């Protein structure tokens, strides 16, 4: 019989897959989708908690996370369009201005 | 019995398509694989009794956000030379998985040390109950999210605006 702990296991595994994706890939689309995957894993854990305690506050928190993810998606995609217009590339290494010192004039 | 079968089917498809999503080279394949993950997670929500969240997940995530991502991917007209070259992608993914695996194992064994009750199939996350909770104790966060969405809208318009020479 499946218990609530199995849902926690699936949520933790999905979160770990998201971490692996965001660290090991350089394609910004896939990095962005890994962030979304991590948010979804947290949502799954919240809904499992809501089932365990029979409390609806966790489900409302999951709805809030979905709304924030929708706002985040619009900003991310506008940034991708800007990046692609300027660099013609989907490489995350283009965003390295804060990573190293650059000497102008 | 049915819930066990549904749980294993949905979780295997969620984990498998998530693993494929971080491995695909083309972003369009990754996005289509991610849709399968999101729909499987929606099924897991329904299995846990959150019928309203099941609908929200399908309408907003699989419907709106992923459609937006697919639209942008098609709009950008990405060619092979626009993609970053990742010759050691498989090695990186393997290495990071081995690095993350102990922490994941610790978390899973910790969470499974708690005695959980078996799944009881009843619909307690109906739209009426969730709406009552949302509009009684979560009114302020709800209003703040509407402001956040407005700020995101303004930000996107400013980002996507054509830049003038004088800033």
Characteristics of this structure?
heterodimer, A: mainly alpha, Helix Hairpins, B: 167 residues, 6 helices
Which helices and strands appear, and what pairs or packs with what?
The complex is a heterodimer of chains A (105) and B (167).
Chain A: H1 4-24, H2 28-53, H3 57-87
Helix pairs in contact in A: 1-2, 2-3
Chain B: H1 2-21, H2 27-47, H3 51-76, H4 89-111, H5 127-136, H6 139-160
Helix pairs in contact in B: 1-2, 2-3
Can you describe what's shown?
The complex is a heterodimer of chains A (105) and B (167). By secondary structure, chain A is an all-alpha fold. Chain A has one domain (4-87): Helix Hairpins. Chain A has helices at 4-24, 28-53, 57-87. The longest helix of chain A has 31 residues, at 57-87. Chain B is mostly helical. Chain B is built from six helices and no strands. Chain B has helices at residues 2-21, 27-47, 51-76, 89-111, 127-136, 139-160. Chain B is globular, with a radius of gyration of 21 Å. Classes of the chains: A mainly alpha (105), B mainly alpha (167). At the A-B interface, helix 1, helix 2 and helix 3 of A face helix 1, helix 2, helix 3, helix 4 and helix 5 of B.
Structural classification of chain A: mainly alpha
How many DSSP helices of chain B? 6
Mean of residue pLDDT of chain B?
A: 89
Distance between the termini of chain A: 69 Å
By DSSP (H or I, 4+ residues per run), the number of helices of chain A equals 3
First-to-last CA distance of chain B: 64 Å
């Amino acid at each position: 019989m499946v218990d609530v702990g199995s849902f926690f296991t699936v949520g933790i595994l999905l979160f770990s897959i998201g971490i692996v994706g965001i660290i090991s890939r350089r394609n910004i689309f896939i990095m962005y989708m890994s962030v979304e995957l991590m948010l979804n894993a947290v949502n799954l854990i919240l809904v499992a908690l809501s089932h365990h305690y029979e409390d609806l506050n966790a489900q409302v928190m999951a709805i809030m996370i979905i709304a924030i993810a929708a706002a985040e998606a619009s900003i991310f995609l506008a940034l991708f369009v800007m990046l692609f217009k300027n660099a013609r590339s989907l490489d995350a290494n283009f965003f390295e201005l804060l990573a190293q010192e650059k000497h102008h004039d | 019995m049915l819930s066990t079968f549904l749980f294993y089917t949905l979780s295997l498809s969620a984990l498998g398509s998530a693993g494929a999503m971080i491995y695909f080279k083309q972003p369009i394949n990754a996005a289509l694989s991610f849709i399968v993950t999101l729909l499987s997670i929606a099924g897991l929500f329904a299995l846990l009794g959150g019928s309203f969240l099941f609908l929200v997940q399908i309408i907003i995530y699989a419907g709106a956000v992923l459609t937006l991502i697919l639209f942008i991917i098609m709009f950008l007209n990405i060619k092979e030379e626009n993609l970053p070259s990742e010759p050691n992608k498989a090695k990186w993914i393997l290495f990071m998985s081995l690095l993350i695996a102990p922490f994941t194992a610790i978390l899973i064994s910790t969470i499974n040390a708690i005695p959980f009750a078996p799944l009881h199939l009843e619909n307690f996350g109906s739209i009426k109950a969730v709406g009552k909770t949302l509009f009684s104790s979560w009114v302020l966060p709800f209003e703040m999210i509407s402001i956040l969405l407005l700020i995101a809208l303004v930000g996107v318009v400013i980002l996507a605006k054509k830049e003038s020479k004088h800033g």
